[in-house]
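A.,

Following up on our hallway conversation. Structure tokens first:
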């Protein structure tokens, strides 16, 4: 049986959750509360970086959201593969997965980390720079999506890259809206309409109160 060590609010945990829901794969969700010393020690034993998600499958223990999804696609595939068999298409999927992690998730994490510090230790300059990075990422994603077919996902069929895009856009949009980018906004709306995304948002809802930019989350996701 698969076990996913995760937290419902953590954006990187949404990626494998979406993948598991998309494939309809049975798994045991194990919520890790880092405020609890036993849970923190457990996560550290699994992965000394002490970051979730971590997947356990028998003797296999895997960290890193993208690698977990690659593993699931290899060993527990659903009806639709999340990494295409064609190597050229797979390259595009991995490119856009990296894009959302590096150029949206990373700035989001920096901004959230800053907001969680005491007022006296916050750094406006860093936050402004991270928002500039988000602006650049929005332009890059908008340009790419505007050139795609209307019903296409970020790299063709629904994939690993869309699993990465959904949490990145959800949290980035709450902090620094991207309404000015129509193709990106339309893509995000389509992502959130997928049942897998709906389940992830529903699971996170009781925890949104702990997100420092909760006022930026659209009302439809809070109800
Ligand atoms: N590159 C890793 C990033 C994992 C990561 O940053 N996880 C965050 C939650 S979204 C975490 O565990 N934070 C706990 C902490 O910082 O103490 C992945 O893709 O899984």
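Then the amino acids I'd put at each of the 223 positions:
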């Amino acid at each position: 049986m698969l076990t996913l060590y995760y937290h419902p609010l953590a954006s990187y945990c949404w990626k494998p959750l979406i993948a598991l829901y998309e494939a309809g794969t049975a798994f045991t969700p194990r919520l890790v509360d880092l405020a609890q010393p036993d849970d923190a020690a457990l996560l550290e034993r699994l992965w000394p970086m002490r970051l979730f998600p971590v997947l356990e499958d028998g003797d296999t223990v895997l960290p890193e959201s993208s690698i977990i999804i690659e593993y699931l696609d290899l060993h527990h595939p659903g009806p639709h593969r999340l990494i295409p068999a064609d190597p050229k298409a797979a390259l595009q999927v991995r490119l856009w997965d990296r894009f959302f992690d590096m150029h949206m998730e990373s700035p989001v994490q920096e901004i959230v980390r800053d907001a969680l510090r005491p007022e006296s230790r916050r750094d406006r300059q860093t936050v402004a720079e991270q928002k500039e990075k988000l602006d650049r990422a929005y332009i890059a994603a908008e340009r790419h999506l505007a050139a795609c077919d209307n019903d296409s996902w970020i790299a063709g069929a629904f994939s690993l890259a869309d699993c990465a895009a959904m949490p990145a856009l959800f949290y980035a949009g709450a902090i620094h809206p991207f309404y000015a980018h129509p193709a990106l906004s339309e893509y995000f709306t389509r992502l959130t309409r997928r049942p897998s995304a709906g389940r992830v948002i529903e699971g996170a809802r009781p925890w949104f109160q702990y997100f420092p930019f909760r006022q930026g989350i659209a009302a439809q996701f809070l109800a």
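Residues 10-12, 34, 51-53, 64-66 surround glutathione (CB under 6 Å). Curious whether your intuition agrees with the design.

B.
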